[in-house]
Design brief:
The chain is mostly helical and 268 residues long. Helix content is 71%, strand content 4%. It has a three-stranded mixed sheet. It is globular, with a radius of gyration of 20 Å.
Length: 268
C-alpha cells in the first residue's frame, strides 16, 4: 500500500520525465549532424558534449523555472557547439604536463609526489579552463541565438552573487585560493566578452584583485592579469580559438603553483 508522500513523489517524477522528454524533442533541432544531443537529469547543469545535464528540481516546475532552464540550456549548448572536448581531455589527462606539475609541487612542499592527488590537480585544471571557456562560449551563443543575451543575463542574475558585492566578498573569502584565481579569470573575460548589465564588474574585479594581491603579491597578480588581457584580445579577434584559453590556463598555473601547491594534498 503506497502512502500519500509516495504518490506525490511518483507524480513529481512523472512530471519531470514528461518535461525531460519534451526538452529532448525540442533540442533535436539544435544538435549537429551525426552528433546526438540528449538531455539527462543531474544535480547541476553541465555537458560532456553528448549529454546536456539539467537539475531535476528545475524540471519539476518547468513553467515557474522556464527562463532559468532556457538560460542554462543556452549556456550548455555553447559548450556543446564550441568547446573542444578532446582538447579538454588533453589538458586534464595529459600525463606529461600533469606529472611535471605534481613533481614541481612536491619539490615546493618538500614531500614525495605520491603524497599529492592527481585528481585534485585535474579538478583545479578543469575549474580554471571552465572559468575561461564559459565567457567565450556565451559570447559565441549571443551571436548565434537572438534571445541568448537576455536569457544568459537572467540566468547569471539568478545563479551568481552579482548584485551584492558584500555578499560576494564573504562567499569568495571562504573559497580555496585556486577557486579565487578562477574567479579572476572568469570575471576578466566576462567583463570583456559579455558585460551583462546586472553585474558590477569593476567592483568584483577590485575585490578579487585586492584579495589575490594579499595572497600572491602584486607582481604575480599583475602577470596573471596581463595574460588574461592578452587572451581577451585574442578571443575578440578569434573567439573560436579554444587552444588560446588552454595555453593561458597553463601559463597562469605555472605562476600560481607555489601558492596553491598545498591544495594538491587535499583529496579530489
Amino acid at each position: 500500500m503506497t502512502t500519500s508522500k509516495e504518490n506525490q513523489d511518483e507524480g513529481l517524477r512523472q512530471v519531470v520525465l514528461r518535461n525531460l522528454r519534451s526538452l529532448n524533442t525540442t533540442l533535436c533541432s539544435f544538435a549537429e549532424p551525426l552528433r546526438p544531443l540528449t538531455v539527462t537529469l543531474s544535480d547541476r547543469a553541465a555537458t560532456n558534449g553528448e549529454e546536456l545535464m539539467l537539475p531535476a528540481d528545475l524540471l519539476a516546475d518547468r513553467d515557474e523555472n522556464r527562463l532559468l532552464i532556457l538560460g542554462l540550456i543556452v549556456h550548455e549548448l555553447g559548450h556543446y557547439h564550441y568547446t573542444d572536448f578532446d582538447l579538454l581531455q588533453e589538458f586534464l589527462l595529459g600525463r606529461k604536463w600533469g606529472d611535471h606539475q605534481i613533481a614541481r609541487a612536491a619539490a615546493l612542499l618538500g614531500c614525495p609526489p605520491q603524497d599529492l592527488h592527481y585528481g585534485r590537480l585535474r579538478m583545479i585544471a578543469r575549474s580554471w579552463l571552465n572559468a575561461l571557456e564559459d565567457p567565450r562560449v556565451e559570447s559565441l551563443m549571443r551571436g548565434r541565438l537572438f534571445s541568448a543575451e537576455a536569457l544568459l543575463s537572467y540566468t547569471h542574475g539568478e545563479t551568481d552573487l552579482v548584485g551584492d558585492p558584500a555578499e560576494f566578498a564573504t562567499a569568495f573569502a571562504a573559497q580555496h585560493l585556486s577557486r579565487r584565481i578562477a574567479s579572476l579569470m572568469n570575471v576578466t573575460l566576462s567583463a570583456g566578452l559579455c558585460a551583462y548589465p546586472d553585474v558590477d564588474y569593476a567592483t568584483l574585479t577590485a575585490l578579487i584583485t585586492a584579495d589575490l594581491e594579499g595572497a600572491l603579491g602584486k607582481r604575480v597578480v599583475g602577470a596573471m592579469r596581463r595574460e588574461l588581457s592578452a587572451l581577451l584580445q585574442q578571443l575578440r579577434h578569434s573567439p573560436k580559438d579554444g587552444r588560446a584559453a588552454l595555453k593561458c590556463a597553463r601559463t597562469i598555473f605555472a605562476k600560481a603553483l607555489p601558492a596553491i601547491a598545498g591544495e594538491l594534498r587535499l583529496p579530489p
